[in-house]
Amino acid sequence: MTSLLFKCLVSIFAVFFLATTVNANDVIKPIAAVDENSSQWQQTLKTARGQSVYFYAWGGSKAVNDYIRWATREIAQQYRIRLIHVKVTDPSEPVSRLKAENGRTSAIDLMWVNGENFAYLKQQGFLLGNLWTTIPNTAFLAVDKLPITVDFGEPMDGFEVPWGIGQFNLIAEEAVYPQPQLSAKSLLDIAKKNPNTVTYPRPPEFHGTTFLKQLLVDLTEADPRLYQLASQQAKEQLLPALWQYLDQLHPLLWQQGQAFPSSAAEQFLLYQQQNLSMAVSFNPNQWLKEKSAKQISKSSVRRYFTDGAITNSHNLAIPKSAPSPDAAKIVINFMLSEKAQQEKFTGVWGDPSVITALFDEKATMPAHPELHSSWHVLIEETWQQRYGG
Amino acid sequence: MAATIRRIVQIVPLARIRQIALASGWLLVSLISLLPILGIVVGLWPSEQITFADVERLLAYQGLSVSVFMTLFSAIFSTLISLYIAFMVYSQYHLSRRLQSFEKYLAPLLSLPHLAIALGLVFLFSDGGLFFVDSGLPRKGLSTLIIAIVIKEVPFFLLIFSAIGRQLPIKYWLLQGKALGYQDYRCWWFLVFPPLLKQSRLALLAATAYTLSVVDMSLLVGPNIPELFAVSVYRWQSSFAAGDQVLAFWSNALLLILLAVSVFILYAHEKLASIGCKALATKGSRFHIGKINPVFKAWLPMLGLLIAMMVVVFTLWSFGLNWHSSWHSDNFAFTQLSTRLWQDEWLFFALPLQNSLLIGLLAGLLGVAFALLALELQRQKGKYWPDYYWLLAIILPQLSMVLGWQIMHIWSQGGYHSGWIVLSHLPFTFAYAYLVLKGPFQSVEPDYELLAASFGYSPWQRWWQVRFRLLLPAIFMAFAIAFSVSIAQYIPTLMMGAGRVTTITTEAVAIGTGSQQDLIALYVLLQSILPFMAFFVAALLARRFRGSVAGNSMGGGSIG
């Protein structure tokens, strides 16, 4: 469902990203952000005192909710700002509200966003710009180590600030998935040996589409054309491999591929019930956290595809018409602080840090860049045509 | 002379006041009932260029026809099946004096939210379920969805029947039928079913509209190759990728057509059923539907057991039991359970629970009051408007309608407080109160009021002391339903309140999109507490007052 609105910047991004991951000694381009001690930031702190920040964020994860509760206490103590978590079921809810408000004073001060929602909001001019230059802690973002300047092909351009990292991985039973890495072929073998235990969320659910992208990357040996606007020729040459593969895989899936989980959360519940041998996740440390909370079996492990885990960021943005933009900036600044990023990683959530000081290669898996967004749309549409009806 | 003049002076303003009261009554009622139309027009007003070429895009969507057919089928089928089951159960209970006050047993059955029933069902009975009973029920499929909906709708219909039944001289009819030589069950079908069906038409419409547009349940237990239509509509509506908003517009239009089609089917069914009953009755033909009737006596206890099992499972989950807390191993001990989650969350759910209670009380009371007002105004006019008009809030696609309200609310710049939330719940509580009250209201025996008038009661006294009193059992039921409808509202609460006012449902629904089963269970239980209390209290109160039953000596309702 990712939009055609995206411009073809992913190729540049992919090259940039691959280059930087290969050679970490490249010159780091410092981000010119305002200084903590500058009068400008002190002024922001002063005006924001006593304000409330309504933070629209998905409320389905206890780990994330607990983390936001922790941040709320910290922010109240340090800055006298009230952070209020508006728990939404779908990240599109604030987008729909901003569209309805159409520039009038918003009910939203801060939102958790990425992907097509960000692209839409940026294009419509609903977002406050220059976040990277006006928030001090953005200077410490690990832009040289992580793909966090472009959001699904849409350059952030200061309209959103990365908050954490998503990396596609499987949470799986060790006995069934003995190898640390996974290929399309090994997955098919596993499905043959253990029919009815493998599945993926029904595209266009985001995890489901990413699962298909990982398979496509593996089946085409990461063809460079996947990171460019999909041409007719590339489409005809690359996609059939995926469909042939799925034709083989689907009869072996859970419910013989006649039904799919609606979401990653639902698949996770099925995994918990031991109906499935694997679940999918974008949080590289979810398996550890769930294991320590005794939510999944002790024999659960994390698995990722051989070409690396498709990696993206989840981000924070402020609407242009937010009533308390200064306070929202302070919240973002806090969220990027070492303390907050540390707590996010080591606490209940386990979401990897996006700042250089805490960047830890062990916390993340080998990263693989996102495909060009045109492939995203193509995969979803063709999947619907072939298997969805 | 002076006295006469004084009287005339008094009378003129009185008539005036009456006129003003009537006019403002109509104004209020039409405002509330027009809100849904206003909402859908503003909400669906296209913000992008809409062309008919996009209709082709919608029609070309793979699996659309199957999806539309499945959706329509599940909506109509589950409603009618629930209707017939509820009718048979009702007839069984009505026959037995001891079990007549079955309403209070409905309270627990009615108070679990739809999604919780679906969740409970799959976790109890599907493959890998807690009790390892492989019932052959697919984890996701049309049959599971229909069963979950039937479980939820049957008690709802029973409640409606009970409200209607208190105003109908059912015993008298049965006696007459018996005198003519019909067996009990035939009397039920020939004499009781047609009027009961006619009076519960609104409830049928509401149930069908609900099933047509339900998203959360469809996502959890519905089939998804292809997915149900409401899910597709929701996906397009919440997507801002190019072209999806246009698809959302046309799919909403199609959804409206589906709603119209199902209204038509329900009307046709009602006509056919009464013709059929009449034909069978006059032909005196044999049919054996009554033979299986006793089975339905067991329905409520069975359902009660099922719900109790679900509640037990949810409770155990909320205390930390799951598939990995050595349930499978021998050393399982109840000491492993802990109240940690309840303690953790207590601070956070107390306020939402209180908000829910206050909003529900206010929206419920206002809804019932407006429904009575609408009915009374129509009675005075001597003409009742079409049912679907009053039920628009339930029938129209909720997301688009509330989006329209949200846009108007933003125009008004009225801030975000619970008053707006009450207002946004009002069309729903009003519609549900109306659907419960209409049947009983219309069948209040006018003789009583005539009698009261002959004793010199003023119109107001007659209304308040006779009609209102006679309607009390139905009013309690209407309030309980309206209250629980208000508690269950997620979309209006979030969209109008903008997160300023959290209710137990805004919390529960958000939690429900995740995978933390202990927390999901805890919020399911919390969400059920308030409706449970409302239904339970309403059932107890309803027993204390019995409705108006014509042929009074025959109609021994349950007298508390």
Can you put this structure into words, describing what you see?
The complex is a heterodimer of chains A (389) and B (560). Chain A has helices at residues 10-22, 39-48, 62-79, 92-101, 115-124, 131-134, 184-193, 206-219, 232-249, 264-272, 286-292, 325-335, 338-346, 373-387, and strands at 52-58, 82-88, 110-113, 150-151, 154-155, 161-167, 169-173, 181-182, 278-281, 300-305, 309-317, 367-368. In chain A, 41% of the residues lie in helices and 15% in strands. The model of chain A is unreliable at 1-29 (pLDDT under 50). With 389 residues, chain A is an alpha/beta fold. Chain A is globular, with a radius of gyration of 21 Å. Chain B is globular, with a radius of gyration of 25 Å. With 560 residues, chain B is mainly α. The longest helix of chain B is centred in the N-terminal third of the chain and has 43 residues, at 2-44. In chain B, α1 packs across α17 (398-412) and α3 (64-95) packs antiparallel against α9 (201-213). The interface between A and B is large, with 65 and 61 residues.
Total helices of chain B: the number is 23
* Number of continuous helical runs of chain A: 14
Question: How much helicity do the residues of chain B have?
Answer: over 70%
Largest sheet of chain A at a glance?
6 strands, mixed
Count the E strands of chain A. Answer: 12
| Helical coverage of chain A, percent range | 40-55%
Distance between the termini of chain A: 17 Å
Structural class of chain A: alpha/beta
SSE order of chain B: HHHHHHHHHHHHHHHHHHHHHHH
Order of helices and strands of chain A: HHEHEHEHHEEEEEHHHHEHEEHHEH
- Which of globular, elongated, flat, extended, rod-shaped describes the shape of chain A? globular
| Contiguous runs where pLDDT drops below 50 for at least 5 residues of chain B | 548-560
Largest sheet of chain B: none
Biggest interface goes to: A-B, 65 and 61 residues
Label the structural class of chain B: mainly alpha
CA distance, first residue to last residue of chain B: 53 Å
Mean pLDDT of chain B: 84
Radius of gyration of chain B: 25 Å
Gyration radius from CA atoms of chain A, angstroms:
21 Å
